[in-house]
């Protein structure tokens, strides 16, 4: 025989021997107290019974026990009945009423009272598929997972042993003594107790409800991070934001980018781009383009400051604004260093270089107080304390000052104002009152300039224009023609006309501020979807289903209605990259909570 044939024959025999050894290594190893063959009743099966000990089955690192087994040696397949137990190392153990195991495919199926235990959780279901090659288990007839903190129910579930991860789909409910989570789709990591929520999801407790369409929740430490249409509902507040962090034990929440805090008790809203909410203290802190909006008599008052703080129960709300405060209402606007609003008394205090515009009138003083009627929510009165000064630019230019206009002025120690139909109507200057008034006829012609001193002055405004001035206990006064009234005497000391700063719209509360750049959000991307549990590319004929199995080809098909509604195929590199570009793919660091982004209606185009 030629040498090359000898060598070929030798290697062929070696290969066949190795293949035979490998095949023998995959055969099921079964022992029992009693065994018998009944080809009539159970053709091709060795029937094995429990007497003292249960039937014991071993295969490739898995162990099984049962009361009755049917071993189909030619198909390397076993059916197990009664008190079925299955164990794979120290990772999982399973009990059921019935089980099947295919030694060729290492595929197990259990039904009837299935209980799967891992080191961190327990799963109960009616029917469970277990693929030992993939190291994954799957159910689609409803299941319940119990871990140290919660109970999770869902219609469909898939367990990834290598990650200790469960993917739950459809009617997912997490029940905890403190809250209930409901979600369309949820990934749960059993070892850490962390859950990722996808699709419309709520977390409901006695004191709050969280809603999001993508989120992260630590079920053991009871805190979470939420993005995409997220909000937190309290008793009388709702917090919205691109990114929300919530810690239930401390009742603390923080939000980033396009924040809205709705106060249903006081018909108001606060907006900004960073907020902290302390429920137990009934307080809200908000900054970064912070603005508080309160509806009064179908009109809204806007208050903006570097930061706003709201404290107190609904009946005793206090709003404080600090640094560069601006106030706007359709017929009233102002500025001050800080502001203090008591919603119980209706008192608003503008503190630190305050200035107030009502129509064409400008008022200044050491401090300004506005008073609202708490029942009608209409402005009732105002007070300007110390160095009160009201000025109104005359509407017609003066021919002797190159088209400049004069100023009607009233000054004194204190100014009192009253409102009619929410508009400033009457002003009273008391103590050391002085006035300069440009007197004009009905045709607008200047008749003279009245300059006087008196104990007090009453001024009447109509449609925000000064129409009448009455002096009480006048001690000095004279009407001058324009030509006889020196230019240097036409303005009282202390007049600082700031009409160019007047706020003409709600957008002007941000006037002069640098464009705002939203914080970049490190968000939660869509889940990466692994390949299907079953391989649909395999035809029915190619499926290795023993004749004795209770399963049929339809049981090995992925059903469209059972697939995740949200997710990116793990091999879809383009979509994964797109998600990566928009949000950082990582578990959020709850100490430095990441924050997402949506457009806010209060920001202008260059602020978005």
TrEMBL record:
Residues 52-184 form the Organic solvent tolerance-like N-terminal domain. Residues 1-22 form the signal peptide. Residues 589-602 have a biased composition (Basic and acidic residues). One of its GO terms (biological process) is lipopolysaccharide transport. Residues 544-608 are annotated as: Disordered. Gene3D superfamilies: Lipopolysaccharide (LPS) transport protein A like domain. Keywords: Signal. This is OstA-like protein.
């Amino acid at each position: 025989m030629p040498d090359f044939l000898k060598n070929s024959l030798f290697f062929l025999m070696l290969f066949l021997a190795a293949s035979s050894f490998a095949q023998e290594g995959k055969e099921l190893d079964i022992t029992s107290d009693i065994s018998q063959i009944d080809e009539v009743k159970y053709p091709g099966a060795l029937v094995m019974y429990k007497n003292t000990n249960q039937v014991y089955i071993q295969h490739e690192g898995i162990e099984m026990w049962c009361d009755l087994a049917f071993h189909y040696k030619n198909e390397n397949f076993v059916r197990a009945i009664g008190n079925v137990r299955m164990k794979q190392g120290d990772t999982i153990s399973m009990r059921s009423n019935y089980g099947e195991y295919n030694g060729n495919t290492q595929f197990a199926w259990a039904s009837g009272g299935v209980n799967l235990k891992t080191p961190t959780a327990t799963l109960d279901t009616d029917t469970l598929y277990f693929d030992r090659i993939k190291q994954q288990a799957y159910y689609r007839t409803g299941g319940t997972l119990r871990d140290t903190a919660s109970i999770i129910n869902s219609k469909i579930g898939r367990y990834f042993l290598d990650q200790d991860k469960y993917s739950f789909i459809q009617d997912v409910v997490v029940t905890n003594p403190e809250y209930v989570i409901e979600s369309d789709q949820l990934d749960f990591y059993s070892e850490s107790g962390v859950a990722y929520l996808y699709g419309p999801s709520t977390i409901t407790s006695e004191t709050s409800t969280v809603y999001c369409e993508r989120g992260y929740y630590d079920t053991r430490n009871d805190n979470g991070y939420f993005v995409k249409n997220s909000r937190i509902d309290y008793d009388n507040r709702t917090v919205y934001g691109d990114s929300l962090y919530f810690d239930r034990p401390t009742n603390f929440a923080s939000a980033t980018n396009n924040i809205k805090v709705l106060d249903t008790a006081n018909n108001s809203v606060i907006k900004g781009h960073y907020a902290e909410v302390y429920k137990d203290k009934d307080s809200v802190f908000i900054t970064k383009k912070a603005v508080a909006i309160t509806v009064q008599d179908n009109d809204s008052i806007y208050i903006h400051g570097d930061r706003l703080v709201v404290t107190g129960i609904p009946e005793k709300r206090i709003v404080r604004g600090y640094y560069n405060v601006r106030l706007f209402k359709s017929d009233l606007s102002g500025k001050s260093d800080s502001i203090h609003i008591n919603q119980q008394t209706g008192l608003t205090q503008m503190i630190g270089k305050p200035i107030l515009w009502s129509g064409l009138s400008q008022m200044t003083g050491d401090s300004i107080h506005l008073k609202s009627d708490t029942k009608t929510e209409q402005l009732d009165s105002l007070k300007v304390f110390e160095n009160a000064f009201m000025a109104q630019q005359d509407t017609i230019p003066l021919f002797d000052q190159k088209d400049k206009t004069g100023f009607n002025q009233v000054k004194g120690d204190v100014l009192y104002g009253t409102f009619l139909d929410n508009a400033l109507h009457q002003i009273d200057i008391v103590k050391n009152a002085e006035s300069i008034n440009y007197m004009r006829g009905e045709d607008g012609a200047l008749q003279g300039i009245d300059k006087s001193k008196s104990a007090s002055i009453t001024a009447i405004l109509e449609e925000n224009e000064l129409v009448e001035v009455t002096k009480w206990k006048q001690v000095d006064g004279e009407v001058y023609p324009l030509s006889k009234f020196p230019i240097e005497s036409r303005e009282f000391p202390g007049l600082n006309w700031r009409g160019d700063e007047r706020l003409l719209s709600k957008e002007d509360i941000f006037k002069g501020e640098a464009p705002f750049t939203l914080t970049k959000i490190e968000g939660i991307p869509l889940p990466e979807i692994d390949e299907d549990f079953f391989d649909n590319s395999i035809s029915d004929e190619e499926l290795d289903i023993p004749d004795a199995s209770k399963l049929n080809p339809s049981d090995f098909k992925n059903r469209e209605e059972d697939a995740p509604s949200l997710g990116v195929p793990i091999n879809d590199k383009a979509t994964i990259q797109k998600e990566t570009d928009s949000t950082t793919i990582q578990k959020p660091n709850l100490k430095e909570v990441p924050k997402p982004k949506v457009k806010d209606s209060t920001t202008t185009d260059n602020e978005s």
